[in-house]
Amino acid sequence: MKDYIPNRELEELGNGLVSSFIKWSRMSHAPKCIDIVGIAEFLGLNVVYEHFAEDEPDKIGFLSDGKTPLKVRRNGKVVSFPFPLGTIVLDTVLRADAESGRRRFTIAHEIAHYVICKHNPVPQFHRIYDTTRNYTAEEMKRHLTVEEMQADRLAAVILMPEATVKKALLDFHRGYPVAVYGQNIINGDDRKMIHRMAGCLGVSFTALFIRLKELGLLDYRPVTEYVDTTLRGGALPWA
Fold first, then answer.
1. C-alpha triplet 156, 161, 163: angle, nearest 5°
2. What does the DSSP 8-state code read for residue 79?
3. pLDDT score, position 138
4. What does the angle CA 174 – CA 180 – CA 182 come to, to the nearest 5 degrees?
5. Is the pLDDT higher at 143 or at 211?
6. Is the dihedral of CA 94, 58, 119, 156 positive or negative?
7. What is the DSSP letter of 239?
8. CA–CA–CA angle 148, 153, 155 (5° rounding)
9. Looking at residue 147, what is its pLDDT?
10. What average pLDDT score do residues 191-206 get?
11. Beta carbons within 8 Å of 138's beta carbon, 6+ residues apart
12. 210 or 119: which leads in pLDDT
């Protein structure tokens, strides 16, 4: 059984999920900012917040299988609690307004785990592995790496469907690809534009930049062009 889903398949899954949600919600048109909690509810998932007390401090999201307990802090005590099946649990730190982008991506990431599990059921981290065979440490590491990578990719598609990104690019940049010099350099005006666009979509600058790259909406140019058009001339921008 394969544990890898091609990117083109993840694109279709994510775009199809959003389209079905929009139809289910009876929206007249696609929203600029995807209602990620609404999509969770559409799938029958429930989003709750708890104060995580796991040993790994980088754990901020959890999709419950109804069996695996999660360590949380309640009334000053650490308890291991098995949440109901299909519950997305977020660390309370994500409630802050400043964490909006990370909160939305974390919810999308856990939704992606659910979708991938339903679409391509292979052993998952929160589920019991095949007891008829012994998994090597390398096999476990590879599986978990692939699983997280694909969940991130699908999460990005759900939050930023192709049509939504292209509409935003039309609104903010007249539909033109964003110029990138070398592999990472963006001029100041375009960087500000991407920040505004990301704010409209409810995602981070980095997430949007990666998504623009995935969709082929970046125009790669030589670094020398940036040097000649932007850096040379002597005058400072605030002079």
1. 155
2. E
3. 60
4. 165
5. 211
6. positive
7. -
8. 90
9. 85
10. 97
11. none
12. 210
Q: 27: helix, coil or strand? A: coil
Per the listing, tokens 């110029």 go with 179
Distance CA 34, CA 202 (A): 8
Helix ranges restricted to H, the chain: 7-24, 36-42, 100-119, 137-159, 162-173, 188-201, 205-214, 223-226
pLDDT per residue as tens digits for the range 77-100: 999 989 999 999 999 999 999 999
DSSP letter assigned to residue 96: S
Euclidean distance between CA atoms 100 and 103, whole angstroms = 5
Tell me the pLDDT tens digit for each residue of 16-29: 999 999 999 998 88
Alpha carbon 209 to chain centroid distance? 12
pLDDT of residue 121: 64
- 3 state DSSP class of 224: helix
Cβ contacts of 63 within 8 Å, gap of 6 or more:
45, 86, 87, 88, 89, 110, 113, 114, 126
Alpha helices in 25-130 (DSSP H): 36-42, 100-119
Instruction: Return the SS3 of 210.
Output: helix
Whether residue 32 contacts residue 164, with contact meaning beta carbons closer than 8 Å, is answered with yes
The count of other CB atoms within 10 Å of the CB of residue 30 is: 14
Number of H-type helices and E-type strands within the chain = 8, 7
In this structure, what token pair is assigned to residue 68? Answer: 């695996």
Taking the model in full, what pTM does it have? 0.86
